[in-house]
Amino acid sequence: MHQVLWSHPIELGLTGNDVRTVKGPSDALRCLADQWPHRGPYYVAARSACRAAIAGRRTVEEARKLFISAAKEAHLEPH
């Protein structure tokens, strides 16, 4: 399995002034699993889209957009 990356990394402000740079779907899946404060509908959609992007069933940019939506849903400010 090769590493797929987004066109632009996303920086997230997490709890405790922790900033995490997410470079692609694999990073996003780790972040969603390890550090996500709220698991709503966009969380589920982003997780699914990231897995599909890694497998080549969706584009990495579709996964990126859903990850940004999940971050907003969780009140994390993506930059």
Description:
This protein is mostly helical and 79 residues long. Helices cover 49% and strands 10% of the residues. It contains 3 helices and 2 strands; from the N terminus they run E-E-H-H-H. A two-stranded antiparallel ribbon has the order 1-2.
**Shape estimate:** globular
Kindly estimate the percentage of residues that lie in beta strands according to DSSP. Answer: 5-15%
The number of helical segments is 3
Uncertain segments of ≥5 residues (pLDDT<50)?
none
State Rg.
Answer: 11 Å
* Structural class estimated from helices and strands: mainly alpha
Task: Please list the strands of the largest sheet in the order they lie side by side.
Answer: 1-2
Q: Report the average pLDDT across residues.
A: 91
Instruction: Report the order of strands and helices.
Output: EEHHH
- What percentage of residues falls in helices of 4 or more residues? 40-55%
Q: What is the number of strand segments?
A: 2
Major sheet summary line? 2 strands, antiparallel
**What is the oligomeric state here?**
single chain
Q: For the terminal residues, how far apart are their CA atoms?
A: 28 Å
Q: Can you describe this structure in just a few lines?
A:
The protein has 79 residues and is mainly α. 49% of the residues lie in helices and 10% in strands.
Task: Output the keywords.
79 residues; mainly alpha; 3 helices; two-stranded antiparallel sheet
Protein topology:
Blueprint lengths: L9 E4 L5 E4 L2 H10 L6 H15 L4 H14 L6
Antiparallel strand pairs: 1-2
